[in-house]
């Protein structure tokens, strides 16, 4: 993990410069850098600096600094649990960004605002802003921001209890962040704490306590190392709860005390929970007086947050009931059990009611009051059944949410696929004019030379290719056999008409491929063949194109397109000096790669096209280019 020493030194230097400079623009610049750091490490100092920055901006209008001021303050309010205030500031920032910001800035703010939306339980809005960010990042890729989007999507799935998808996304986000290595910024570490907090929560909910504690400890380690203390009370509490569940009371008590003593995290709720749980640890050790004092402190803090936090009040009262029952103070035990029962009933907490009724039934049974014991035992069973019914309803709702989310995702993918199909149709409608011009020119030459047989033969071939091109543009899937037939016609015309036998080609299909029954995306290979001809072989006199199909996986075909051309480096130099060919590659292969991306998404694939430069091992001279394309096998009947 990166040491905080260099950061501390840099911050101290910035603070020193701030004390030396009085010129407004210089102070704005220094405050901007300091506030970006303190927003995650020292919010009280950040708020002081940002207050000064706002005052300077009243008389000196610098939109960039005003934007950063809104963003830093929004992050601070979010850290301080003031989510409504954070939302207002993010909206202001987004309005400003639309006037003066760039695409990556806008994507970053969308991601941050989505987090605040989730905190406000506005899950639909959070999803919309994450989709906006994703769209921007498709056009302007950024691995750092991509990891943040995936992290937020992981939390969306965690909210809907889609744990398998949530853990998949959080692990992917962690992998992307880790890949950034030394390039990690303070904000990246903040997102790493979110990632591992989310993983810890999933492990906790799945009763994998050891993994849960390990994840929470990783979060604590990062926060302490990087000086990010605004949520530390919660993180210590999570570690303490984990150790408590593992019956490691000494470790649990240590972290509960740390949660209580941490002053940077203003969350009374986290501190109250730490007091309550530490009190329970003391109760387990039969330190009843100390336990009761801690229960009282917890209750006071809960009440400062809300007088109607009946759920937590019920838990504390039930623990008091147990304590007095074990201490032989039956009247007090009866009173606190009754209080716990009434409080849990107010919020219809059937799980807690079931636990309380079990405690009361045991309490009465010890004193031989079997009538009351039986009555509360029956109530325990009743509330237990109601809790199970509640869980089942929740699971049904979660399944409905997952279904709707998956449906929306598939609809979005279909729309993207439809868009690329339209792009493909447009591309085919303007098939490489050099190819068409030379082919028609050659046919005209045969006609004027009275070579009627050749003219008729090649005209028929050319007409067939044009007809196939138009027909296939309306399809998404064809058989591999038809795809190969189309490629063969295309290469044949290039060989005989355009290059007049200066080009040769071969197409090979492995014996274990049944090309007549396997379906593939339409015209998926032709753009790469065209690319090889246009940029690798156009200037050569002995060009060779090889196309080979083999089975890569059960559901994937590997197509290798290889040429003996001039290589990508030389081809780029030629394109740079010839505007006529400058954008040729970016149209055909880019659209094809988008199609592959969409089609492979449903199969969880990662890399679809790899381009390899072929060079002489000794001289380094270019020997051509090989392109490896992973093509999904699909139902041949699909349209």
How would you summarize what this structure contains?
The chain has about 650 residues and is of the alpha+beta class.
Which features does this protein show?
639 residues, alpha+beta, Serine Threonine Protein Phosphatase 5, Tetratricopeptide repeat, Heat Shock Protein 90, five-stranded mixed β-sheet, two-stranded antiparallel sheet, 7 strands, 8% strand, elongated
Give the second-level CATH assignment, the architecture of the domain at 412-632. Answer: 2-Layer Sandwich
Determine the mean pLDDT: 84
Note poorly predicted spans. 581-586
In this structure, how is the largest beta sheet organized? Answer: 5 strands, mixed
Cα gyration radius (Å): 34 Å
Head-to-tail CA distance between termini: 52 Å
The backbone outline, from C-alpha atoms, is elongated
**Secondary-structure-derived class:** alpha+beta
Spatial order of the strands forming the largest sheet: 2-4-5-7-6
Determine the CATH topology of the domain at 412-632.
Heat Shock Protein 90
CATH homology superfamily name of the domain at 412-632: Histidine kinase-like ATPase, C-terminal domain
DSSP strand content: 5-15%
């Amino acid at each position: 993990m990166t040491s905080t020493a260099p950061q501390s030194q840099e911050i101290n230097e910035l603070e020193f410069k701030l004390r030396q400079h009085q010129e407004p623009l210089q102070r704005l610049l220094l405050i901007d850098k300091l506030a970006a750091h303190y927003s995650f490490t020292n919010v009280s100092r950040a708020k002081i600096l940002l207050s000064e920055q706002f005052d300077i901006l009243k008389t000196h209008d610098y939109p960039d600094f005003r934007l950063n001021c809104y963003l830093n303050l929004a992050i601070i309010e979010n850290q301080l649990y003031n989510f409504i205030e954070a939302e207002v500031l993010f909206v202001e920032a987004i309005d400003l960004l639309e006037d003066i910001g760039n695409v990556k800035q806008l994507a970053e703010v969308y991601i941050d605002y989505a987090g605040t939306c989730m905190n406000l339980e506005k899950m639909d809005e959070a999803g919309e802003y994450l989709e906006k960010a994703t769209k921007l990042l498709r056009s302007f890729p950024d691995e750092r921001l991509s990891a943040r989007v995936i992290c937020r999507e992981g939390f969306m799935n965690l909210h809907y209890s889609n744990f398998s998808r949530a853990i998949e996304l959080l692990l992917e986000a962690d992998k992307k962040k880790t890949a950034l290595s030394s390039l990690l910024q303070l904000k990246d570490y903040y997102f790493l704490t979110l990632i591992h907090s989310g993983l810890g929560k999933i492990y906790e909910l799945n009763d994998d306590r050891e993994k849960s504690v390990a994840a929470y400890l990783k979060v604590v380690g990062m926060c302490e190392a990087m000086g990010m203390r605004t949520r530390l009370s919660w993180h210590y509490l999570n570690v303490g709860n984990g150790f408590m569940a593992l019956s490691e009371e000494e470790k649990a008590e240590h972290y509960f005390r740390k949660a209580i003593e941490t002053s940077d995290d203003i969350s009374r709720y986290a501190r109250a929970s730490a007091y309550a749980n530490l009190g329970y640890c003391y109760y387990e050790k039969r330190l009843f007086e100390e336990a009761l004092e801690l229960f009282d402190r917890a209750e006071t803090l809960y009440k400062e947050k809300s007088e109607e936090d009946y759920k937590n009040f019920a838990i504390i009262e039930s623990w008091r009931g147990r304590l007095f029952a074990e201490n032989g103070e039956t009247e007090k035990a009866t009173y606190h059990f009754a209080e716990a029962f009434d409080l849990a009933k107010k919020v219809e907490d059937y799980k807690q009611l079931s636990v309380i009724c079990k405690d009361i039934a045991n309490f009465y049974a010890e004193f031989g009051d079997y009538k009351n014991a039986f009555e509360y035992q029956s109530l325990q069973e009743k509330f237990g059944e109601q809790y199970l019914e509640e869980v089942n309803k929740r699971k049904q709702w979660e399944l409905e949410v997952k279904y709707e989310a998956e449906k929306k995702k598939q609809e979005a993918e279909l729309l993207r696929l439809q868009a690329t199909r339209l792009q493909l149709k447009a591309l085919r409608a303007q098939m490489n004019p050099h190819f068409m011009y030379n082919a028609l020119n050659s046919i005209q030459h045969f006609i004027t030379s009275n070579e009627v047989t050749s003219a008729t033969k090649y005209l028929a071939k050319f007409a067939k290719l044009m007809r196939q091109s138009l027909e296939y543009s309306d399809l998404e899937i064809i058989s591999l056999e038809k795809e190969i037939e189309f490629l063969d016609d295309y290469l044949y015309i290039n060989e005989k008409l355009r290059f007049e036998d200066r080009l040769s080609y071969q197409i090979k299909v492995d014996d274990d491929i049944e090309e007549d029954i396997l379906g593939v995306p339409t015209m998926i290979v032709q753009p790469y063949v065209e690319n090889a001809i246009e940029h690798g072989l156009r200037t050569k006199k002995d060009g060779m194109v090889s196309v080979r199909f083999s089975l890569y996986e059960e559901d994937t075909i590997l197509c290798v397109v290889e040429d003996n051309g001039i290589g990508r480096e030389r081809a780029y130099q030629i394109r740079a000096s010839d505007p006529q060919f400058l954008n040729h590659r970016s149209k055909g292969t880019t659209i094809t790669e988008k199609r592959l991306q969409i089609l492979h998404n449903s199969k969880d694939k990662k890399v679809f096209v790899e381009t390899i430069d072929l060079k002489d091992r000794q001289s380094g001279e270019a020997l051509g280019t090989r392109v490896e394309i992973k093509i999904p096998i699909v139902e041949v009947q699909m349209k």
